[in-house]
């Protein structure tokens, strides 16, 4: 009988030890419920953030080495104080919060990753204010957050004295994510920045807040909203988490294989009337976009009309333009999907890193 009891105790100890050895990650989908986050170009931040987070979780849950906790899995409002409590109670090894950026100008684009810090200058502090502003939607927020005013740059977050090791781990993970954004997704790299973010201050483990891109930029919003774009983001963030664990713990978990795909973005239906030398689209005169066999490569959108010569397009020829919504969409070539994949690679080599394939209409 004693041997049986001893065996049970040993089995429980081994099981408990195995459970403790799992790498715990909290995945935090920004905003939710009554807090939509940024809403631009037909995209809503809370939905994109949740979709990407659930995809990340699905990848990581296939690994027995990981234990995943979500701050939300549906469209519900979760106060910042509760998000931090979820992570702290879970005793997570890493906290990853996913968001989308926005600006009053449609021009900015690119991905950035934020870690906790005290910098309060420039556009990045405006981002910090926007992410902290959710506090004001909570009841009794002045008591909960000890009077913290997210709109006042002179208000001090109650910064804990973060251990240098924890901060460096956050920076290492943020840098890895940015490297993948730049090298695997060919997104504009806006870098890693330290900012005063309440939710990162209140969590006691390494953590980052990832801004996937700017919803206020039309091309980038289409990328973020697309199925391929959301899949691409989730794959590289999941891979970054796995590699972070390996580097931190000295493990050899095999990272997920990346299957990066360019989004196929459908343009809105347009009523077209052909004339002798031009095309009329919704009563707007444009230069004719040649009819073809399915797809085109959109290389840029501008409020300025350019002459369609190679000198204006980094040496590219076969450029067409569509005037719409007060601006000009410029396209490189046209043809089948296979043809346009090659054209897309050429356009990116010529400097059009945000180029993407669209369906011809």
Automatic annotation (TrEMBL):
InterPro entries: MurNAc-LAA_cat (IPR002508), N-acetylmuramoyl_amidase_3 (IPR050695). Coiled coil: none annotated. Residues 1-18 form the signal peptide. Keywords: Hydrolase, Signal. It catalyses: Hydrolyzes the link between N-acetylmuramoyl residues and L-amino acid residues in certain cell-wall glycopeptides. Its EC number is 3.5.1.28. Residues 84-242 form the MurNAc-LAA domain. It is an enzyme of class 3 (hydrolase). This is N-acetylmuramoyl-L-alanine amidase. It comes from Flavobacterium bernardetii. The lineage of its organism: Bacteria, Pseudomonadati, Bacteroidota, Flavobacteriia, Flavobacteriales.
